[in-house]
Every structure is written in C-alpha cells, then in structure tokens.
Amino acid sequence: MPGKNQFVYNKWMVVELEKKKDVFLQTAYMNGIPTEQRAFGIVVGSGRKGQTYLYWDKNSLYQLPVSYYTPANDWCNSPGYSENYIRFDRPIPATCLECHSTYAESKEKKDGGTVFNKKSILYGVDCERCHGPGAAHVAFHTQHPEAKTASNIISAKNLSRQQRLDACAQCHSGLRKHTQPAFSFTVGQKLDDFSTPNYDVDTVGNLDVHGNQYGLLTACRCFKMTAQLDCSSCHNVHVSERQNMTAFSQRCMSCHNVNGVAHDSCSYKPPTGIILADNCVDCHMPLLPSKKITLKLANESTVEADMVRTHFVNVYQEATKRFVEKSR
C-alpha cells in the first residue's frame, strides 16, 4: 500500500516493499539509489506475533531485512538484523526450518553454508511434525475404516512425561547445539541424543523470555512439585485458545483448587469485583520484555523490546498491579 510500504533506517537508507506482477520484493535504497533487490521466497511465522521472510539464492536461503510485527501492524527490522543499516546476508541453516517447517532435505557445504532440495520442503508445521510420517497411517485406515485405534502413528498417550516435553522442547528450548543433522529427531526419542542446550541448566531462571519456554517452565516450582505437569497440561495444540485466560486459569485451578476452594494458595486479596481465578496468567506468567529480540518499527524512531509471555511461573508484584488497574 502506498505510504505504508517503506522501512526507514535513516534519511540515507530505506527498504521499500512492493509487488511487481506476481512477485513481492524488498529493495534497498542508499541515498535514493537502489542497491540490492530480492524476491520473497518463503514466509516464516503464523502471523500471530509476526512474519519474517526468506529469499532464495540458487539453492540457499537468506533472510530479508524487513519483517512484519503484528501487535503494531507495522514493519520492523528482521530478528538478528540491526535497525541501523541494511543487510541481506544472514544465511538460513536447516536448523531454522526444523522448527518452521515439517521437513526439508539439506546438505552442508564445506564453507559452512547450506543448500536445500526445494522439491523436498514440506511447508508449515503440520501433523507429521509431531506425529511422524503419515503415509502408513493413512494407508492402514483407508483399508480398515472400521478400526478405531490409531495405527502407524505416534500418539502422545503412549509417551512418557519427558518424551512429551522433548517433543515441545525441540523448538521451545532456545538455540541448541546440534549433534545430529536437522530433522533427525523423531518424537518419542531422547532429544539430548540429537542436540544439547547451549545454556547452563543451573541458571535457567535467568533465561530470556524469548524462545526457551521449556527451560523456564522446568525451573519453576509448579513443575518441580509435580511429576505430571508438562506442556500439554496447559496447552491443547489442536485448539486455538490464544487470549482465553479463563480456559488457561481453569487448568491452573486443577492443581491449586484445594478442598473445593479455588485459588486457596493465593495470599493476594484483590479489590472487590475482580475474580483472580478467571485470570491467573497475567499475574503469574506476565508478558515481559525480551532482551534478545528488540525491534524498531517503521513509523517509530525508538527501539522497543518484543513482549513475550514468560513460562517461569512465579509471583510478579508489578504485573499484579498492572492486572488490577486494567481490570477495574
């Protein structure tokens, strides 16, 4: 849209986003002169928080400099890129697509770069990413429509707690050091046999809120005090429940409801009319600023932190004050 299609770094450097015929482009301008232009190749991200864009250079992928940030309905510098100068040179390894697609065949070059087989890529995160290859499953149930028990497919019901946690931790435990090629891990296997965390497990309480929900969750008392709590205790991955604080809070109550008294373990006494049990999340898992992801918006001159919901369940007094003010 004219007037909404530029990201201005400063008065000398601008990236313009445009569509020519059926191709979307990002073009860098230095002092009004176009210096580099690349076409959108792959869109990464659901759009819930935002989207970033990759471009093809032969069979290798690189990140485009400008991304979209949903909360502000605006363009921003792409994650990993400076807000002060234009770059197009961030290479995308297979480990990036491992969390942002279902499958991609790749090979590492001697210079450290990655080449992909474009025809092999299964875009998006679909059922097979968690449940494993589905061809045999489909074939069996096509031939046996009367069968009610899922066959030839990975079911979370048959996994241990750590196996279920590992399934989520593959993409929700921050950057990991890979000891096996991308896409080697299959749900049900031990994640540490394929990649290891790049942080000290004794300092998980200090992790940034962006990207390591697993590390934060496993550091908190709620997790340590029960042998059953895992990601699926709160998240139903097959249902969109974003912003449904009541639904999430009911799951908190499944542990914190003592002798039929909801929220019995909370010592905070709210003002009249505010029902804490309807929203445990904004007090105990608030949105916090990320130190890893900072953004400059196209129409702003300042840099701001991305706000991410922490998974370290704790008492956050300032968050409680904000929640009460907002609820009045």
TrEMBL record:
Keywords: Signal. Residues 94-132 form the Cytochrome c-552/4 domain. It comes from the Bacteria. Signal peptide: none annotated. InterPro entries: Cyt_c-552/4, Multihaem_cyt_sf, Multiheme_Cytochr_ET. Pfam families: Cytochrome_C554. PANTHER family: C-TYPE POLYHEME CYTOCHROME OMCC, DISSIMILATORY SULFITE REDUCTASE SIRA. This is Putative CXXCH cytochrome family protein.
